[in-house]
Amino acid sequence: MPHKKHVLEVRDMEEADIRKDLAKLREEYFLRRFSADPKNIDSPARYKQMRRQIARYLTVLKEREMEKQQAKGE
Q1: Beta-carbon contacts of residue 23 (< 8 Å; ≥ 6 apart)
Q2: In sequence order, which residues have a C-beta less than 8 Å from that of residue 54 and are 6 or more positions away?
Q3: Residues 11-17: what's their mean pLDDT?
Q4: How many Å apart are CA 39 and CA 36, to the nearest integer?
Q5: Is the dihedral of CA 34, 36, 41, 43 positive or negative?
Q6: What is the DSSP letter of 74?
Q7: Fold classification of 7-73 (topology level)
Q8: Could you tell me the sign of the dihedral formed by the alpha carbons of 57, 60, 3, 20, in that order?
Q9: Whether the Cβ atoms of residue 58 and residue 22 lie closer than 8 Å to each other
């Protein structure tokens, strides 16, 4: 399970590592969310943390994509 990373740490990561961690986190989120018994949720706050971490990864990937497009356009 990937631990919570600050956005600055994510920006320092290689793109392949971000995508790998993102895939693991999405899979873990899916398994926890849809295979758990709704009456027996271990930590509802963990879902929020996972969603935010997924958003961090996606934000950094989008920033990099936009930088590449700007570099092409110039």
Answers
A1: none
A2: 22, 25, 26, 29
A3: 93
A4: 8
A5: negative
A6: -
A7: Helix Hairpins (1.10.287)
A8: positive
A9: yes
The proportion of the chain whose per-residue pLDDT surpasses 70, expressed as a percent, equals: 84
2 close to 53: Cβ distance less than 8 angstroms: yes
Tens-place pLDDT, residues 37-73: 666 666 778 888 999 999 999 999 999 999 999 988 8
Q: Which pair of structure tokens corresponds to residue 58?
A: 């996606």
Number of C-beta neighbours around residue 2 at 10 A: 13
Residue-range domain boundaries for the chain: 7-73
Helical (H) or strand (E) element with 30: helix 15-35
